């Protein structure tokens, strides 16, 4: 209890910690000042800060003198444009900073791979190194996301660590979870310390199973103690998934609405979204990592089905209550989400002060040979999840997501439309949308889906494409008789209408199930878990895009890197620039990517994200921005 009271006092700190040791520090990539506040509260003296975002700089200025030296220079500039020698006049003994992590993070992987050092932001550490080599401090601390260790198959981390080691410092690094140091949020980060000692030990966790007395983690309910009760902010009053937020139990995310978890009316396929989607925090367990730029449905959300307030966000991240952020609500969330937790930073600062500067600091350290338990804990949790899924699969519970019924629907090729036209007298003019109609008929578990341009009738001899799919209906490992057989045919003479076939199948998913799109039953391309298979896909005319459509329908040809020459082979265009072929395919709404659209994809290769075209309502940037033409 005494420990928790002391923890609560930290949240309410009002800049009262004196700067007794005055160890001079240079802060790079300062952001909103999370690392700086932690080091300041442990007696370090931040003499200068470098930050490129003007709004973040205003936040730093706003919090002088409580959490920064009142005379500290706040340099609002791109670190790559600075002359490192300007810092030689300062008696800098230690450097802190965490270059932007997006290029190594999960957010980067969502785009088709973490670009790492291939992205210009991923080389910002080189400017960090350049300043260290000029200032020559006694040591430095570098913070980044855990993903930096594995991005580009570990090549990025080898490059980063070699650059730091070449400066003449010994390196020590660990993955640490900020939750283990007194904030109610799991937030794993890589911490690297450059030093000139024989070795460096990191601070032992103060909370959790690895702490000396197994002190329980701080929970959001405990952290929010003393904050005023907040009304619903209306964020979820409207919206596509807003009604689901109130249905979520605390501690759950979108997976709660999947058949894999036993939901009787599934809305999402298993692993079709990322874990922060529709994530509602549990009041008595630390939250998942908060992100800087959340979408409307990106959590964590309050267990009362609302967004967290800024004071609550500050408590979740370990900022003092009186720390002020500039800007709108979204601006402040961005600054808090991009920050290092000041409470976590305090523990790091104690370890640095004691070992590098011989300060009389009370801090418990982790021996180099001792590991921490969070990876094994996550492994055990994954085993429990698999066991739960297996138990459900072996039960007789059938969670049917599809409720088949005949229907007729009309839509346009530039967006979803519910209009039905009484007559076929809709001659198309240049630039006007093309309208299509799908007629769905049912015979037991077999579905026939006939797709035509509006105003035409199906002509058997005019089938352009045919797709036969088997769609699983339940969460169990079901037999074939539990599958839906979908037989979709496209009746048109225009190869360009291949998109209409996939649009109609997407409409079938929406019309006949609780899922919101074909994506939901396929999953995200980085880790697809399709609940359907394509038994056959045939086209009945020669056209390169139709050939590609057959090629794409094979799941094995998706989510993998292939040489661009393969596109030339498919299209029979040996001498055509393959990037022109990619442009053409993207104009048909195939989500095909290459180095020019996603820098993490090697030059000379492409990747097809999905076996189907993007639905007509989903926008996409079709054209490739060509810096260097590659074939």
Describe the structure using short key phrases.
disordered C terminus, Rossmann fold, 3 domains, alpha/beta, 631 residues, 6-stranded mixed beta sheet, 7-stranded mixed beta sheet, single chain
CATH architecture designation of the largest domain: 3-Layer(aba) Sandwich
Number of separate domains? 3
Specify the CATH homologous superfamily of the largest domain.
Vaccinia Virus protein VP39
Strand order of the largest sheet: 3-2-1-4-5-7-6
Global structural class: alpha/beta
Percent range of helical residues: 25-40%
Distance between the termini: 66 Å
User: How much strand?
Assistant: 15-25%
Number of strands: 16
Map the helices and strands.
Layout: H1 2-11, E1 23-28, H2 34-41, E2 44-51, H3 54-62, E3 73-76, E4 94-97, H4 106-109, H5 124-135, E5 139-145, H6 155-165, E6 170-177, E7 188-195, H7 220-223, H8 242-247, H9 310-317, H10 329-338, H11 342-357, H12 374-394, E8 407-412, E9 435-443, E10 446-453, E11 463-471, E12 484-491, H13 498-512, H14 518-522, E13 532-539, H15 544-552, E14 561-563, H16 565-571, H17 578-587, E15 592-594, E16 605-608
Parallel strand pairs: 1-2, 1-4, 2-3, 4-5, 10-12
Antiparallel strand pairs: 5-7, 6-7, 8-9, 9-10, 11-12, 11-13, 14-16, 15-16
Helix pairs in contact: 2-11, 9-10
